[in-house]
């Protein structure tokens, strides 16, 4: 039996394409999480190299950087979902495939899935089909923040951020791969258009200043740094933040709490040097903003990069969670 939803099309396996296979049970998922990021970065580098070497070679370095960032995020989200929700009682691998077709990049991720998870995913797809994606995204951000869920993947935030922050189309195919054991697989497709042009609202605001002296507060990971210090008066995010779930983001919540202790009325968050924030990180940021909104005494300003389209969309959505939040793109 085969069921198709959304904007699904079959892979052509023509022109430029890359296929990778993964054995989800070969290493613990905690170790696999790091491998997901490395694999996503490799896929993004491959894609950028292909695009830069085509006949119509692009000399737009900012455009290529944005494509790399988009590809890395999308590949990482697909791999994280595939690893987490695959049926580990089978020997079937997880297969990732990427191809360039006409004016779009297609990302395919196929993994086995247990029936209960398949039904939950179909329910999510049905709600997505019957909702405005933008409103659905905000609703799910609110839901995960209010319910204090540890597992944001069940809310579909990764899929929704791909649609809303990267203007991509999604599709799914469910099929039975082994009739004797009724093993089911799902193939998730993300279709990212090339050379998208979109008018983005940009606002220029004046940064809040404080005179509070505080020692640097810092969280460091393998590929990122989050730091607050007295000279910048801001929490600065740098690199690629791909922590696993809200539990690992606890250290970031603690950093925000310490900053609020010394700046009770305002906080500035600088994302200009942030290359990637996974869906768990988006969930973390939305939870913090909703917490600040409830206090009613804290003003938040977020500074993003005008060269990173996904940040412009993200900040606009964060402002919807807290209408008095200010954001600026530089």
TrEMBL record:
Residues 241-330 form the STAS domain. Coiled coil: none annotated. Pfam families: DUF6272 (PF19788). InterPro entries: DUF6272 (IPR046239), Slr1658-like (IPR058084), STAS_dom (IPR002645), STAS_dom_sf (IPR036513). This is STAS domain-containing protein. It comes from Calothrix parasitica NIES-267. The lineage of its organism: Bacteria, Bacillati, Cyanobacteriota, Cyanophyceae, Nostocales.
């Amino acid at each position: 039996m085969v069921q198709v939803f959304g904007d699904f099309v079959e892979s052509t396996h023509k022109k430029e394409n890359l296929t990778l296979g993964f054995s989800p049970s070969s290493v613990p998922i905690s170790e696999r999480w790091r491998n997901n990021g490395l694999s996503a970065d490799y896929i993004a580098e491959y894609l950028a190299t292909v695009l830069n070497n085509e006949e119509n070679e692009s000399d737009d370095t900012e455009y290529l950087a944005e494509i790399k960032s988009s590809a890395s995020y999308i590949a990482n989200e697909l791999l994280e979902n595939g690893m987490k929700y695959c049926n580990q009682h089978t020997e079937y691998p997880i297969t990732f495939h990427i191809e360039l077709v006409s004016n779009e990049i297609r990302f395919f991720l196929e993994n086995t899935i247990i029936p209960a998870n398949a039904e939950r995913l179909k329910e999510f797809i049905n709600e997505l089909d019957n909702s405005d994606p933008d409103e659905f995204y905000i609703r799910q951000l609110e839901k995960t923040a209010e319910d204090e869920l540890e597992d944001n993947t069940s809310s579909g935030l990764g899929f929704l951020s791909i649609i809303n922050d990267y203007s991509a189309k999604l599709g799914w195919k469910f099929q039975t791969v082994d009739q004797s054991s009724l093993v089911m697989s799902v193939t998730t497709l993300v279709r990212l258009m090339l050379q998208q042009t979109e008018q983005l609202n940009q606002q220029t605001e004046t940064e809040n200043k404080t005179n509070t002296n505080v020692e640097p507060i810092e969280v460091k990971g393998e590929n990122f740094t989050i730091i607050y210090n007295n000279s910048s008066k801001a929490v600065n995010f740098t690199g690629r933040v791909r922590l696993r779930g809200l539990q690992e983001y606890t250290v970031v919540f603690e950093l925000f709490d310490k900053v609020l202790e010394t700046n009770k009325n305002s906080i500035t968050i600088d994302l200009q040097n942030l290359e990637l924030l996974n869906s768990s990180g988006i969930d973390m940021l939305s939870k913090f903003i909703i917490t600040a909104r409830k206090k009613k005494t804290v003003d938040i300003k977020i500074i993003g990069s005008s060269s990173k389209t996904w940040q412009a969309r993200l900040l606009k959505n964060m402002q919807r969670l807290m209408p008095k939040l200010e954001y600026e793109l530089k």
